[in-house]
Amino acid sequence: MKRNDVAQMIDHTLLAPQATAAEVKELIEEAARLHTFSVCVSPNQLPIETPDSVKVATVCGFPSGAHATVVKAAEAADSVAKGADEVDMVVNLKLVKEHDWDAVQADIHAVKEACGDKLLKVIIESAALTDEEIVKCCEASEAAGADFVKTSTGFHPAGGASAHAVALMRKTVGDRLGVKASGGIRNAETAQAMIEAGASRLGLSSSAAVLEGYED
């Protein structure tokens, strides 16, 4: 793949809780230079101004997913009102581990409703799940109207993205939903493995380092 093709798959990300407005400004400037698809920042950074070519993504119920559904929905609605084009929500892992799939779906659906016509990605923390749980999370996300499923927050001690999880997620959702690989992707080799496994979006904080491994 060419560098610009990969760049247009990247959500250039800064989600450190101590990130400052100045650091977000640098993130946006770097995203513009690298031609990434979007920047992804915490909700407390919104609203932000980006070039027309760079979308604004944010997170919801982050990083634990253990927020009440009404709180997640309110957070998503507030972010959209402040200009977010995309929202990455964290699934309720308690409900996932209890295999209460109707409740998992309802949690996601409430956030999708709050997003309106904006794109919703569902972070399932795949490294903390069994293969069966990964499949069920993807099915619940699709049934709830989500647009993407996403591997990881990058904050869970179980780890980040794996090519195995991405491939399983892609097999489950087919071409009906996007698949975002995020967490621990720091070089072109890892990024390419995720793309070949079926990722259509990459969440990266090391975007420049990854793109250096691709030719123009």
From TrEMBL:
Single GO molecular-function term? deoxyribose-phosphate aldolase activity
Q: What does the record list as GO biological process?
A: 2-deoxyribose 1-phosphate catabolic process; carbohydrate catabolic process; deoxyribonucleotide catabolic process
Q: Which EC main class describes this enzyme?
A: lyase
GO CC, alphabetical: cytoplasm
Instruction: Please write the reaction equations for the catalytic activity of this protein.
Output: 2-deoxy-D-ribose 5-phosphate = D-glyceraldehyde 3-phosphate + acetaldehyde
Concerning SMART domains, the annotation shows: DeoC
Q: Which NCBIfam families match?
A: deoC
- Name under which the protein is recorded: Deoxyribose-phosphate aldolase
User: From what organism does this protein derive?
Assistant: Boudabousia marimammalium
Query: What gene does this protein come from?
Result: deoC
